[in-house]
Design brief:
Strand content: over 45%
Order of helices and strands: EEEE
Distance between the termini: 13 Å
Helix content: under 10%
Number of strands: 4
Length: about 70
Amino acid sequence: MFKLQLKPLPSQVVTASLGGNRYTIILKSANDFMVSSIQKNGSQMTDGVRIVYGTPLLSYKYMEDGNFILF
């Protein structure tokens, strides 16, 4: 398991390299909740998905290198 450090900001971009692929995770504030968009090697995987505490950010079909969960 890898841990990525997030900043206490309403919007930020985090990058991670996993399994030889580069993931870009974009976190944004949307009213009273947060959303994420994820890119893999520059290709959009998800866009504007609501973040739920402890729930994986990627759906099963995109989990070839693992997943991302916010705690």
